[in-house]
Amino acid sequence: MIKNDIITIGWWYLLKEYFFEMIDKAKRDFNVSLKEEDLIKLENKLFNGNLSEEQIKERIDLAYLSIKENYEKRRNDELIKQGVAEGNISQVREVAKMLFSDPYLSDKVSIYGGSIPYLLTGKDSKRIIGDIDTHVDFDNMQEIRNYIYANSDTISVLYDSLELSGEDFGMELIINGLNVSIFPTVATSEGMAIRNFYINKVTNEIEIKETLFPGVFEKNEIRTYNVDGVEMRMMSPEFTYITKQVANRPKDIEDNKILESLISYEDVERMRHQMKMPIVSYDKIVSMQDQTKKGL
User: Fold this and answer.
1) Contact residues for 20 (Cβ-Cβ < 8 A; gap 6+)
2) Where are the alpha helices (DSSP H) in the chain?
3) Could you please report the per-residue DSSP string of 111-151?
4) 18 neighbors 57 (Cβ within 8 angstroms)
5) Which CA distances in Å does 230 have to 97, 98, 108, 140?
6) CA dihedral 112, 118, 121, 123 (to 10 degrees)
7) What's the whole-number mean pLDDT along residues 56-68?
8) Which CATH code is given to the segment(s) 89-287?
9) Any idea what DSSP says for residue 61?
10) Binning pLDDT at 50, 70 and 90, where does residue 208 land?
11) Taking the model in full, what pTM does it have?
12) Backbone angles phi, psi at 174, to 5 degrees
């Protein structure tokens, strides 16, 4: 028993050393420097749980890759802002047209989020738009899922929350090389509830969450626009503008500068009066260790 304890303590310290070597390497390679409290949080997350030496080492390697991906994204965005590189709005428009040219999906999905300002204006984004976010009615979700799996030649499933968590919080797909999320919404007497999920590759977990938007009724906020000859359903620019004002990240500020030419300030004020702060009504983290994983 004492010998086994010594071995365990030995590889534990070696892994700690490996972790700090990863942090130093990330600092050298990507000029990333974590605050002490963030470093402690990351360390606790990586070493949390009854994991083997190999599993912890894999988490550390994945953390480094995640830091690298974030660095490359920031670098690409900076090159786009400088005019050295081009954005991907043309790809976003093509995938959106594919979605709304599909006879089955076209009247069931609606776009929300950061792609809306650029789809409506034709302007290029000063960053890479990583995905197209869409909503569907929760009651249609299983039927849509069946349709997607039946059309795997054109739509690839990256993650399916139902498979990974046992509960239906939507899917993430790849269409023509671009990520497309399909998140179900539930209409309640209080407002719109949006279900979504987040994959943590480092800890191999899925977070499933439902957020209620009191005073927002989706059917009143969906608009239809003609983009390059294709009718597309989207959440209103006013709803998008307000939610981005609340988030207030650098990309949201940039997006709202574009949206200012599209919104009705009268409708914005109307929505401000009827909307209340979003409420997270359900939040759960599930280990994917024993679940079927796609695209990992």
Assistant:
1) none
2) 2-30, 36-47, 53-81, 89-101, 116-121, 141-150, 161-165, 218-221, 237-247, 250-259, 265-274
3) EESTTHHHHHH-PPPSS---EEEEEEEGGGHHHHHHHHHHT
4) yes
5) 6, 9, 15, 23
6) 180
7) 81
8) 3.30.460.40
9) H
10) very high
11) 0.80
12) -125, 120
Cα→Cα distances 279→105, 139, 218, 271, 275, Å = 29, 22, 16, 17, 11
Which SS3 state, helix, strand or coil, does residue 78 take?
A: helix
Question: Residue 54: how many CB atoms within 10 A of its CB?
Answer: 8
Distances (CA, A) of 260 to 93, 102, 193, 255: 20, 31, 26, 9
CA trace torsion 233, 114, 77, 64 (10° rounding)? -110
**Across-strand partners of 132?**
180
Structure tokens at 49: 């749980």
Beta-bridge partner residues of 196: 209
Closest alpha carbon to 145 in 132, 163, 128: 163
How is residue 89 written in tokens? 């709005």
C-alpha dist (Å) from residue 45 to 24, 39, 49, 59, 201: 18, 10, 9, 9, 12
Residues in CB range of 64: below 8 A, 6 or more apart: 22, 25, 26
CA distance to 57, 155, 157, per residue, from 146 (Å): 37, 12, 11
Contacts of 102 (CB under 8 A, 6+ apart): none
Separation of alpha carbons 261 and 269, rounded Å: 16
As a residue count, the chain comes to 296
Structure-token match 């480092």, residue found: 202
What is the Cα–Cα distance from 169 to 167, expressed in whole angstroms?
A: 6
| Torsion of the alpha carbons at 97, 100, 101 and 107, rounded to the nearest 10 | -170
Neighbouring-strand partners of residue 284:
208
CA distance 4 to 11: 11
Q: For 3-41, how does the pLDDT look when each residue is reduced to its tens digit (9 = 90+)?
A: 344 445 566 677 888 778 888 887 887 777 778 887 788
